Amino acid sequence: MTDLENMLFLKLRPASDHRLADLTEPILAEGERVLQPFQGIRDGVVFTDRRVIAVNTQGFTGKKKTFVSLPYNRIQAYSVESAGMMDLDSEMQLWFAGLGVVTFEFIAGADLASLARLIGEAVLA
Question: What distance lies between CA 17 and its chain's CA centroid?
């Protein structure tokens, strides 16, 4: 079972292939679109136009996967920390009602501004 309290996703980078999008496609709602997929070492995160889907790969072979749906309408607050001169990583924290904080750490080069715009538009709508 995935620990949903204070989840942390480290070193996410923009996914260069369609593997994550294809993996999450069967669970998307009608009309829902994948906007930005990010890949970690084994895990991944997909930002759609309605929610964040976290994909947790488990086991030795990696065939077992857990999907966690985090709808934007449950976000109460968020923060964005840009990369600095010595620290090249950036970070986004989302506070979900009834769940707690979820932290996403991105490597340099991730388009955090467009993610912040996406979350802002979803939260303020």
Answer: 16
